[in-house]
């Protein structure tokens, strides 16, 4: 584990920057001690500041600094999402790490502090600059909602409706209230961009400097927002709240009736190549630091399916005759101990230096629609649960450049295989049988199929899979090695604890947030609002 950079620097930068923006209507010149630096007025005039703030906010969707990628995207998302695994314990000689389901308090702090700083550094300044109106503010709102949804998936209740960019003592919103606020904000942003999106307009300034994802394309941002809305709706359908379930069904209809709609085509995908190291950071961490390998779960499934994405995602190969010598093995979650030499030859990731980092795949939209259909929503405008499921697989294969062949036909036979890497205790399992590729007549298997293929399509992003495992139990994973007596499998790692800094500076409000949780306990095993499997 490399030394992490200081988050406090970001927080101070955000506060100072916000003060500078506020001062553009007052006496900024008194504080601008560099006579050669551009003034706030000059920066705003050519939109340099707006571009910079937007670019910084987008980082909250997908980390682009190597330590942040490791600590957030890989340690939590890719580990709990069954995508990657640690080749050795992140902190040698310690029983506290994410892979063993027993992180330290400081590790729980990191993700919250980092993403909150990234959002706050841009959103409230942009609200000040734009007066809370217009296309740039709408884009900032979409980013804020998407990032806050991810934070809520990790922690639960969040400070949202009463944030203003200045206060550190802020009340939390319950998960239900948070979703209502985010839905309202998201709908407002979609409405603000709708006419420009339909007409095919783009923001030239953001295209040039401040939007490494969609390059100022309004249509693609609206599609992204609608897909985030579908994510929210699917979670709401899993709650026991009838009001939330009704709202979710309405949200699905709104997305399908929207003239722009959600992300459906390969070209709609959300990716970024804005890396601090000028190379894909999964590639950097896997090869320069040699600290991750492919997760045993994804290798086990891809190999059992004879999935052509196996040789695209990893250095293991695929042949139609299932010719594996030996059957490939990734690292089991929580397994590494010591210096990890025994895992040196385990399956490696096949992610190139110039490959983009994924934020969201349009294949996910099709799987979200398929699940919504299973849960009683009317998705007839796009098809049936089966047709959406199958289209999700096709889009994923097309995105990854894989030859789908007979993958979805009855000629494809699952190769059941014991998990036996020669190091960990073997597991004699037939997990892929519970998620056959060809559409099943069994409704329970249908749900497993949808979520398993959604997982495989989202590689290497694991946050969505971690949420799926907790709220549905699918996809089924191999039994991990846990160093937490309360957590025996991924779905039992229900959340992270609220950060220490919140207890230190916002104790009354964070205690109120704890009381909003199921059982009122700030623990890893406390289930979130939508976790009712």
Task: Outline the structure in words.
The chain contains 20 helices and four strands. The protein has 533 residues and is mainly alpha-helical. It has one domain: Serine Threonine Protein Phosphatase 5, Tetratricopeptide repeat (Alpha Horseshoe), CATH 1.25.40. Helix 4 packs across helix 9 and helix 16 runs parallel beside helix 17. The longest helix is centred in the first third of the chain and has 26 residues, at 105-130. The protein is globular. The protein starts with 6 loop residues before the first helix and ends in a 17-residue tail after the last helix. 52% of the residues are buried.
Any key phrases for this structure?
533 residues, mainly alpha, Serine Threonine Protein Phosphatase 5, Tetratricopeptide repeat, two-stranded antiparallel ribbon, 2% strand, disordered N terminus
Q: What's a quick, concise take on this entry?
A:
This protein has 533 residues and is an all-alpha fold.
**Rg, please?**
23 Å
**Order of secondary-structure elements:** HHHHHEHHHHHHEHEHHEHHHHHH
Class per helix and strand makeup:
mainly alpha
CATH class: Mainly Alpha
What distance separates the N and C termini?
A: 34 Å
- The name CATH uses for the topology is Serine Threonine Protein Phosphatase 5, Tetratricopeptide repeat
Proportion of residues in helical segments? 40-55%
Mean pLDDT level: 87
Oligomer designation:
single chain
Shape: globular
Largest sheet: 2 strands, antiparallel
Which consecutive residue ranges, at least 5 long each, have pLDDT under 50?
1-40
* SS field, number of helical segments: 20
């Amino acid at each position: 584990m490399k030394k992490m950079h200081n988050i406090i620097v970001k927080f101070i930068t955000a506060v100072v920057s916000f003060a500078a923006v506020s001062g553009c209507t007052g006496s900024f010149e008194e504080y601008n001690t560099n006579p050669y630096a551009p003034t706030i007025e000059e920066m705003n005039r050519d939109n340099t500041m707006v571009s910079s703030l937007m670019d910084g906010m987008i980082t909250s969707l997908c980390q682009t600094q190597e330590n942040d990628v490791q600590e957030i995207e890989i340690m939590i998302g890719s580990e709990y999402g069954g995508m990657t695994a640690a080749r050795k314990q992140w902190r040698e000689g310690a029983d506290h790490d994410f892979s063993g389901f027993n992180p330290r308090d400081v590790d729980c702090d990191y993700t919250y502090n980092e993403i909150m700083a990234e959002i706050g550094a841009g959103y409230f300044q942009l609200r000040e600059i734009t007066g809370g109106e217009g296309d740039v503010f709408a884009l900032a709102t979409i980013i804020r909602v998407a990032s806050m949804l991810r934070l809520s998936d990790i922690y639960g209740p969040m400070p949202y409706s009463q944030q203003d960019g200045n206060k550190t003592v802020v009340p939390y919103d319950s998960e239900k209230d948070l979703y209502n606020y985010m839905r309202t904000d998201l709908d407002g942003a979609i409405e603000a961009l709708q006419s420009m999106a339909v007409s095919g307009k783009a923001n030239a300034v953001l295209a040039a400097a401040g939007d490494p994802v969609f390059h100022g394309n309004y249509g693609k941002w609206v599609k992204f927002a609608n897909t985030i809305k579908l994510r929210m709706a699917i979670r709401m359908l899993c709650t026991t709240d009838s009001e939330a379930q009704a709202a979710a069904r309405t949200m699905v209809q709104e997305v399908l009736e929207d003239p722009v709609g959600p992300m459906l085509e390969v070209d709609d995908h959300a990716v970024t190549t804005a890396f601090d190291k000028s190379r894909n950071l999964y590639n950097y961490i896997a090869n320069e630091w040699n600290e991750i390998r492919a997760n045993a779960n994804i290798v086990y499934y891809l190999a059992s399916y004879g999935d052509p994405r196996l040789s695209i995602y990893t250095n293991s190969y695929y042949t139609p005759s299932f010719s594996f010598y030996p059957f490939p093995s990734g690292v089991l979650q929580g397994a590494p101990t010591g210096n990890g030499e025994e895992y040196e030859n385990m399956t490696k990731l096949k992610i190139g230096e110039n490959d983009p980092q994924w934020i969201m795949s349009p294949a996910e939209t099709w799987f979200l629609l398929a699940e919504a259909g299973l849960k009683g929503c009317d998705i007839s405008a796009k098809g049936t649960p089966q047709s959406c499921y199958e289209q999700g697989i096709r889009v994923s294969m097309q995105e990854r450049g894989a030859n789908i062949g007979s993958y979805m036909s009855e000629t494809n036979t699952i190769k059941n295989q014991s998990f036996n890497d020669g190091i960990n205790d073997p597991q004699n399992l037939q997990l892929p049988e519970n998620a056959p590729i060809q559409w099943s007549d069994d409704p329970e298997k249908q749900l497993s199929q949808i979520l398993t293929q959604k997982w495989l399509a989202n590689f290497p992003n694991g946050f969505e899979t971690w949420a799926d495992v907790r709220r549905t139990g699918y996809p089924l994973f191999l039994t991990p090695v846990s160093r937490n007596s309360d957590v025996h499998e991924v779905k039992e790692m229900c959340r992270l604890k609220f950060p220490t800094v919140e207890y230190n500076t916002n104790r009354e409000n964070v205690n109120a947030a704890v009381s909003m949780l199921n059982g009122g306990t700030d623990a890893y095993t406390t289930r979130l609002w939508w976790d009712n499997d």
